[in-house]
Amino acid sequence: MTRTLAPLALVAAALLAASCSSHATPAPAVTYPDKDRAAAAQALLSGPDWYRHAVFYEVDVRSFQDSNGDGIGDLKGLTSRLDELKSLGIDALWLMPIMPTPFVDSGYDVADYEDVSPDYGALGDLDALLAAAHPRGMRVMPDLALTPPPDQHAWFRHPRPPTTSAHADWYIWSDTPSDPNIGCGTFSAQFGSSAWQLDATRNQYYFHRFYAGQPDLNYRNPAVVKATLDVARFWLDRGVDGFRCDVIGLLVESATGCDMIPETQDYIRQLRAVLDSYPNRAMVAESTNYSSAAAYFGNGKDMFHMAFNFDYGYFWSMPFSGTLASAVEKPFLDSQKLNPQGAQDALVIGSHDVGRAYDAARGIQSRWERAAFVQMTMPGTPYVYYGEELALQSGSTAVVDTRDYARTPMVWAKADPNHGFTTGSKPWIPFGANADQTSLEGEKGDPSSTYSYYEQLLAIRRGREAFGTGSLQVLTVDDPSIALWVRASSDETYVMAMSMDEEDAHSGTAQGANLPGDAELLFGSATLTRSGADAHVSVPAAGYAIFRVR
Ligand code: GLC
Ligand code: CA
Predict the structure, then answer these.
(1) From the alpha carbon of 105, which atom of ligand 1 is closest?
(2) Is the pLDDT of residue 14 over 50?
(3) Which of 108, 464, 493, 526 could staple 488 via S-S, CB 3.0–4.6 A?
(4) pLDDT tens digit string along 509-520?
């Protein structure tokens, strides 16, 4: 695989070389006066809209960095690596669940909503993480799993046996394994076949959409609403910058629907009001509707700040295994059409719930890199899943379930026996397949590495308002395998070109593109020239480029 990198210092040279293509008339070299990007970034990342311009990083704390040799990643370990993340260009962290847990669902089963799991440290270690992150300009957003706490939570232990206890109606009970008011089964085959579990002590069945050890809370009970909103306050008071809200669309059930019913939307509005009572907080929804997260935004101001666009995030490998640009553009055009004003997509190409981007790309470097290119340049806030910047491959050990394949330890240094992850004898789960081939230490500074690719792409995004909040215009090219899109803020315009064909170079014309100026190549390799209102574009096989045109 060859790739032309265009570090900013080499822009002029790259532009000259690129403009010698036989397809396009050589364009005069153009260099737009640049801003102080560090100052611009600082301004964009301050104030209530910071999250629209930030690059997030999803960390599985358990697999990131062990500090005490027990083989389990922890908060102290994560804190010790903040500078590495900062130097990659990360502005905010989403932490997978850090609360005490019996670990039937990898921590998404929270046994105590107001503490830190001893595996990861103590509340004081979270305070230390926040105290280290904030002065670095980094934000921290833990996972908040309000939907299915485990049967070991104190709220659940209390109602059994006395059904008269304070928590008697905090869960959903039935004398039979069904309830006419609840028209939904388990969430997916992963979580079992029945949504009802007999509780021998109470001699009643309880409802659970996830693992049998995760009874659903009864959000029709106002005491549950109050208690869980207090949980949010507890963490906000400690200084977290917001939450990633786990499967929150499934909070309240009814006879006819269980996903984002009006009662759930009411709850989300109350949660938003809690966040709004603190300055500069934000929350992101894990939407259970993979084709549109529009419902999570309410009127654009009263529900979620961000919601994952899984139509791209979980399914990008499909358009990338074909050659049609329109297929990769569609999820973004759809959200532009369906989302209310003010909505901000959260963009992923992998997560703890799906296979690694490396595998989704079938090991083709140009494929995961172009998938990330789209993630970083289409409208939305990117969330890098830890290890994506190293093209980590999956593991093959399931401790809880097969999703663990994508939750293997971070690889810091190749030569080290446990790759710098732990000083103990072994990590809690074995490393992924290519841990001896890729590592942060080895990839950093290698210009052909995926790490360098991420580093450059994030540097270009930084301090450029157009990427976080600029408008999107998708241009139609007369060659269907070329994607061409424009992002514009009030004072700058960028054009992205990308080829879906991994075999051959392509050229085409976007009629009536009306680009506001000549193209300056910032990243990648392609040519873009204007003739009258039209734009001509040439892209190498599997190529991509970012141009500035204003
Ligand atoms: C979300 C989490 C997933 C978990 C599920 C149930 O989908 O991302 O990991 O299993 O919620 O809590
Ligand atoms: Ca540890």
Answers:
(1) 10
(2) no
(3) 493
(4) 999 999 999 999
Q: State both tokens at 542.
A: 């599997």
Domain 8-35+467-548 has CATH 2.60.40.1640: no
Coil vs helix vs strand at 498: strand
Q: Rounded to the nearest whole angstrom, what is the distance from the C-alpha of residue 149 to the centroid of ligand 2?
A: 24
Q: What pTM was estimated for this model as a whole?
A: 0.93
Question: 400 CB less than 6 Å from ligand 1?
Answer: no
Has residue 25 got a pLDDT over 60? no
CA of 143, nearest ligand number: 1
246 CB within 6 A, ligand 1: yes
Number of C-alpha atoms within 13 angstroms, CB side, residue 121?
22
- How is the chain split into domains, by residue range? 8-35+467-548, 51-148+224-461, 149-218
User: What's 149-218's CATH class?
Assistant: alpha beta
Model confidence pLDDT, tens digit, residues 275-286: 999 999 999 999
Fold for the domain defined by 51-148+224-461: TIM Barrel (3.20.20)
Residue 104 pLDDT > 80: yes
Residue 25 corresponds to which tokens in the numbers above?
Answer: 């008339």
Ligand 2 is a single-atom ion; what residues have CB below 5 A from it?
66, 68, 70, 72, 74
Contacts of 390 (CB under 8 A, 6+ apart): 411, 438, 439, 440, 443, 450, 451
